[in-house]
Amino acid sequence: MSRKHIVVLGAGVIGLTTAIKIQETGQYQVTIVAETLPGDAKGPGYASQWAGAVHMSFSRGDSDQQKLDMETFDVMWDLSQSGGLEESCFLRVTKRFLTANGTDDDCALGLTQMPDFRVLEKKELPGDATNGVSFTTLTIDTPIYLHYLHARFLASGGSIVRAKVQHINQILEGGAEVFDISKPLRSVDAVIVCSGLGTRFLGGIEDKDVFPIRGQTVLLRAPWIRHSLAFDVVGPDPSLCRYFIPRRSGNVIIGGTMGVDDWFPRARPETTQYILKEALILCPELAGTDLPPGHIPSVEDLYPNIIEEGCGLRPGRKGGIRFGFDLFPVNDARKTVPVVYNYGHGGYGFQSSWGCASVVLRNLTQVFHHA
Ligand SMILES: Cc1cc2nc3c(=O)[nH]c(=O)nc-3n(C[C@H](O)[C@H](O)[C@H](O)COP(=O)(O)OP(=O)(O)OC[C@H]3O[C@@H](n4cnc5c(N)ncnc54)[C@H](O)[C@@H]3O)c2cc1C
Asked: Which of 22, 178, 222, 228: disulfide with 174, CB 3.0–4.6 Å?
């Protein structure tokens, strides 16, 4: 029996993970169609290239989200085993999450299942923190991890077509081959929409609940930093937060911002200064390990180690991630093709990616079961 042909739209962490999950069942032939791919120059249409990233669940009492996050954590924890081929994508770290405005329970919400979880004692809290928790997790070197996903998908027999899709009907009627004139058109059995922020503008879907949450960061060289810290919203401005995330490579991402509906695609110089200043308060060791005795670390000490500053647009969505499916009429309604949704992952696309891919696979099975 020939395998069903599935097109996944998008090659961010969500599209790649979903495509792998479906392709590796052996029951489907998957083609990804995407405008940007791992390794492309960084830009505002591809959030995955900008992510820190660390696995720290934001589920905060939402049990469905917690399941998605924990399934993903288990997969990534296995991948990060010492000596494994995928180990270079991850760094296992102790993570502290602090607040100056909350309680121990606020900090702990959604995190108590993490390995080595504990509430910090008051004497362990740095600076203006009033409460905090500590646990073991992993950080993800996102550019390397995206390359790993890309290679794993191709190795499992999947294929990729680079194209910008203007309207979902283009794929529904002509398959991925509609963008490759060297190949004959081919019918498609289902389309999975994993187009992140692009879904706001994708003809036939145009989901106006999708919006950007801008995250500005600085990437530094600091291989001596091997733990991670995040501080929740600081002061009256809810768009400012503080964190640092070391990667196995020795680079460290510091941030950051959570600018709701902020579309500006370049780093703002004054925000970079804010990020550097706050990161030094959180972690003076970022300035180096060989500073002269008595030297007080300053922002200037960080300059020689800066690799880049930049920002990404997280694909936020009112109501959270969109799952489920619709049947779209094709060829003057002579047939219908299922369109399955997986987009709107905001600031938690990496840490929920494998759980979300499982939901899509279940939905796909359900679609064909009822067909
Ligand atoms: C600064 C920052 C820090 C972050 N930190 C974390 C973290 O610590 N942990 C975490 O889990 N997450 C983090 N995130 C969030 C994470 O990056 C996103 O949730 C995730 O990348 C979303 O992935 P995606 O695949 O849905 O979208 P994207 O990565 O944006 O990919 C979208 C894909 O769809 C394609 N596409 C869109 N429209 C079209 C079209 N019309 N035609 C063809 N192709 C199209 C694009 O080309 C691209 O391939 C962070 C994000 C930022 C910016």
From this structure: 178
